[in-house]
């Protein structure tokens, strides 16, 4: 994998100007939300796509299942902890004017709680935040394209960082380079490993990935954007999103 990453870095022609982060298992420690229990309560087979299963149900079952998801996510809030090195990483991203986005399949409450836990005083840690209210969710690439459009960046100037195959598949389908974070004993990591462009064990190592890419790539003509936090209705109908819009 290290050899593959070195070859990929040498071939890249664009600097990294934006990073899209998954949440659970990427910015927060894995295990806070008990997805196995969530599947069991919803009658979903082990490893099945929870959001897809729930969305495919008709009412009133869909609403009842969504209540279970929210209940289990609320339980997870009590156990949620940030990953180590998150402050150092975001200091670096902000100092280098690199855009940041949060893209999660969790609900708005969990998403906003993560930002509160970060307690980041320098500026808003994310310029765009999308929860599962943005449809279709990962691994579909629409949300990533939406974020890149908001930033006015090409997909080859953006990294997608996550801990699961859904994250890596979404980034690859969108055209971004992908970064897998995790440890070898995690089954999600093993599923995604063959498909990721870069692999890191912690958030601090992401700085090295970005530095290596940007030090080897020429300056591009795209410009980054600054943003103020607003709540908007996304461009496509029925896709509400909480985001910072330039």
TrEMBL record:
Per its UniProt record, what Pfam families does this chain match? Hydrolase (PF00702)
State the organism named in the record. Didymodactylos carnosus
InterPro entries for the chain? HAD-like_sf, HAD-SF_hydro_IA, HAD_sf
> Where does the sequence pass through the membrane?
none
Q: Which NCBIfam families match?
A: HAD-SF-IA-v1, HAD-SF-IA-v3
Output this protein's name. Uncharacterized protein
Annotated CDD domains: HAD_like
């Amino acid at each position: 994998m290290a050899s593959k990453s070195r070859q990929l870095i040498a071939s890249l022609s664009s600097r990294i100007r934006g990073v899209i982060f998954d949440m659970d298992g990427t910015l927060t420690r894995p295990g806070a939300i008990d997805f196995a229990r969530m599947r069991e309560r919803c009658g979903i087979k082990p490893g099945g796509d929870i959001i897809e299963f729930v969305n495919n149900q008709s009412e009133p079952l869909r609403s009842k299942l969504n209540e279970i998801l929210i209940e289990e996510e609320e339980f997870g809030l009590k156990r949620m902890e940030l990953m180590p090195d998150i402050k150092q990483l975001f200091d670096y991203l902000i100092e280098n004017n690199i855009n940041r986005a949060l893209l999660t399949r969790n609900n708005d409450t969990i998403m906003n709680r993560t930002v509160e836990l970060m307690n980041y005083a320098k500026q808003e840690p994310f310029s765009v935040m999308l929860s599962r209210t943005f449809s279709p969710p990962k691994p579909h690439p629409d949300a990533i394209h939406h974020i890149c459009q908001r930033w006015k960046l090409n997909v080859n100037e953006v990294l997608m960082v996550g801990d699961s195959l859904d994250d890596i598949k979404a980034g690859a389908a969108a055209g971004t380079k992908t970064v897998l974070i995790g440890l070898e004993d995690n089954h999600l990591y093993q599923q995604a490993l063959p498909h990721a462009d870069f692999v890191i064990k912690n958030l601090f190592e992401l700085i090295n990935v970005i530095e290596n890419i940007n030090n080897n790539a020429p300056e591009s003509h795209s410009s980054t954007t600054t943003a103020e936090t607003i709540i908007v209705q996304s461009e496509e109908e029925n896709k509400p999103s909480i985001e910072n819009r330039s």
